[in-house]
Specification:
Layout: H1 2-34, E1 38-39, E2 42-43, H2 45-58, H3 67-86, H4 90-104, H5 106-113, H6 124-135, H7 140-157, H8 161-167
Antiparallel strand pairs: 1-2
Length: about 180
């Protein structure tokens, strides 16, 4: 009789967990639908602070040490990201819009990124730690999101010749 009671409790716990996951999925989907990460193919204003913090954390050692030059480099990076994203195929922009929408929604920021602090108040260290947790996560969705964010950030930043000197790249060889 005791085992039967435990089985019923475990079954009820699993049902509650499944129900909570379903509710979170619906709420998360509704948030992204109501607040997409891209508007008319461009970065939504709410997403800019998230991408700023992500860029600061991902590019930390590659950015200028001077605070003013660093802020200017990050602002230029966000503009490059915006231009790059606008040139992506519509289907890719739609997927990216969903990811970015999740990043700025508090439940998505907490569950996908693992960051409890709002983007504007998050420190570089907090974001770097959250990114490291995403990279090492056992959930492939979190790892995929990490790689997408890192690749977008690095690809657009290092596409600029001004960034090459910082990594010792002399530029393309003339043929």
């Amino acid at each position: 009789m005791v085992q039967h009671s435990f089985a019923m409790q475990r079954r009820r716990f699993l049902q509650l967990g499944l129900g909570a996951a379903l509710v979170m999925a619906v709420v998360g989907g509704a948030v992204v639908w109501l607040r997409p990460g891209l508007q008319a193919g461009r970065i939504a204003p709410a997403v800019r602070s998230a991408l700023t913090r992500l860029s600061e954390a991902i590019l930390d050692r590659s950015l200028p040490a001077d605070a003013s030059a660093r802020a200017s480099a990050v602002a230029a990076q966000i503009d490059r990201l915006d231009t790059f994203i606008a040139g992506l195929p519509a289907a890719t922009r739609d997927e990216l819009s969903q990811l970015l929408g999740l990043l700025v929604a508090p439940p998505g920021r907490r569950l996908l990124v693992g960051l409890s602090t709002d983007w504007p108040q998050a420190t570089v260290e907090e974001v770097r730690d959250a990114l490291q947790d995403m990279r090492l996560s056992s959930l492939s969705l979190r790892q995929q999101a990490y790689h997408a964010l890192r690749d977008l950030t690095n690809g657009t930043y290092f596409s600029e010749p001004q960034a090459w000197a910082g990594i010792g790249y002399p530029g393309p060889v003339d043929l």
